[in-house]
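Assemble and predict.
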Amino acid sequence: MTLAEFSSLQRAQSTLPFLIAALALALAVLFPLLPPSVLLAGADTLFVALVFHSVLAAGYPLLHSLAIAALSVAQAGIFQSALDRAGSIWLALAVYCVASAAANFVRYRDARRVMALGAALSIAQFLDPMGAVLAVFMLPVCVGLPRPGEAAHKAGLLALLLFMPVVTAIVLAYARGVLGFNPLRLVRAHPLAQHAPLYLLLLAGFVGAPVLWLTMFVQAVRRAPGLIAVYTGLVVLVATALADILGASRDMACVLAAVGAASVAGLCAWPRAARHANLALAAMALAAVVSWLLINLPTVVA
Amino acid sequence: MRHIRRTYREPVLFATAGRNALLDSVETQYREKLSHEAVYALAEAEPALSANRTLTRGQAQLFFLFGLGIVMAALMWPRATLAIAAGGLAAAYLANILFRTVLVWLGAAEIFDAPPAPAPVADSDLPLYTILVPLYREANVLVSLVAALRALDYPGDRLDIKLVVEADDQETRQAIRALNLHLDPSFHIVVVPPSNPRTKPKACNYALRFARGEFVVIFDAEDRPEPDQLRKAVATFRSGPKNVGCLQARLNFYNRNENWLTRLFALDYALWFDFLLPGLDVLRVPMPLGGTSNHFRTDVLRKIHGWDSFNVTEDADLGIRLARLGHRATTLDSTTYEEATNRPNDWLKQRSRWLKGYMQTWLVHMRDPLALWRHAGTRGFFAFQLFIGGTFVSSLANPLMWLIFIASHMLGITFFSGAFGEALARASLFSLVAGNLLFVYLAMLGPYRRGWLQLTPYGLIAPIYWLMISIAAYRAVWQLIRRPFYWDKTRHGVSHYKATAA
């Protein structure tokens, strides 16, 4: 690659966050007016752009980043959303925002990441009811257990991190209860799709996440930020199981989309990313193949 | 010597004298001229940039016409005028707080995103550094001030410390004499002759004439700079671009845990100096300097005629003026600890002065908006409107927004009618709620960089603090009309906390 090509790539990379922000803003402002198919296409584009930007920023080579972004959207759960058959992309976006922001917070712990995590936990609540569950379970883990003499410090951090998600929860409750307006209905293109038994959902969650397994068990790539992404996936699975037991079932596409999104966040937290680019690519390809096998399981079982 | 004999012709007598004695002799000889320059240098060289007139004739006419227009519109179309005014206020209110949020995001970049710290400068390469410390009725903090200055990690023979006292402040002069500072060659006492206006910038301008250092810094009497601050400043000046004319160190309080007010004040300062000013720095827009710990290149400061003696936030004005004249002000990663005013009345006086100064600064630089646009650029122009103008406009608007909210949503009084009015009412409510929530959040985030997270929960009562700022803003408007150059002196040395640089 020549220097000129490199600098144009750098320019493009620095422009990408603004394009992503513009797309997100356009979707947020125009979502009541857009037809569901356009909204879903916009959400899919946003997801791919976010993944590509994060993977590139994490240090993966350009071609690998492109391939990983393509594979992330080729996951059955997210691809189905693109085909306008399920609203799982919203959950994927919620999980991705939270997992990625939490991993970055654990890694850097600076004020900007505090703001990003708070914003992610707020946005997640607009995208999917799972967002509130994520907020409740993510924050204590991010803050960590206080050591002696640290209680006031940790309480302050928790208050800071909780502020945005709590305000969002209050705003949503007010919008639903007093104004009779539920934004979740607008972003969801379809009500919950085909039902799958709980054991299949859990199986999909565990089998469909090779990247998260690697993040958890391979010494070379295991770091605290990656483990936060694994934890996010686990929270989604446990919450899905509990919701299923209580009668609010999620479909297979949603579980696969959520695990796929957490996987990308985990991948971005791998240390020395360029060195593990091929492993990352192989794991994402495997996840994509497995997701297509899994998504057809309910039909086979039936 | 031949030249002296030829020039003065008289029999010339020679005597030995120390450097400070020579400076004192020059001061005595040229006192009147120096005093005049200290007050009027800027007003005479750049009359358009001096606050010696609060309003120009054009501005006065414009304000009169604007006010008249509003009154007439209110008489003819009361509801529509009220609705439009409320909408405009709501927009300004929200724009100000949103801009601050953006600045915080930009300024929040930590070591991972920020450029690396400059390499330290070797002792042998350290230049002469002038420290100006304006004093007025500060006898009670003098001992700890001198201790803090002596604690600076900088070679004593390269320090030119100027304690600047007013001629009629016998109490402080007596305290200085008692400390025998004339025996220490690093210290030089500058006595400012009495003249109006009696402001800190005038005293600083007077002392600047005697500054010998390549760089000059201002410290207040109660300041406790981190010991390595001068070294960091030299390293930053030397490694940075040549157009950097000023470095603003971070400020905060050593008595922050004294009471609820000092805690809220510490949140306010932390947000301002740790996030907002670095955010302005990232955006490369004019930065209003904070009252102390401003490090300057001496030649640049002299070139722009020093501080405006008539502006009561001369530091904020100087930051804007630097930018307009092609110099940059940037932040310095070092903290000076000060004493926070711990009583509401003292706080109110200080804040009123600051807001009055912001109003003066805005009025001065908006005398010719096109020139400001040309000098500061489009981004700088709008940043100036949002940050300088927005600061006092949002403070003035805040209680009005609350009044509208209480009257329309709690007392059921109908201000707005029709679909347009209804939309404006909603926009106004949204601005109030969103603005206050963001204000609370930013206040909570303020102490994060310093790790003072035990202060974070106090951010939840920030709306009360904002209302106090609003009271100060209205007081500032009144003072701007009645006594524009009056310097409401802040009392120091009243805290029970011991002054430390930590």
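Chain A touches chain B at residues 108, 110-112, 114-115, 118, 152-157, 159-160, 163-164, 167 (CB under 8 Å).
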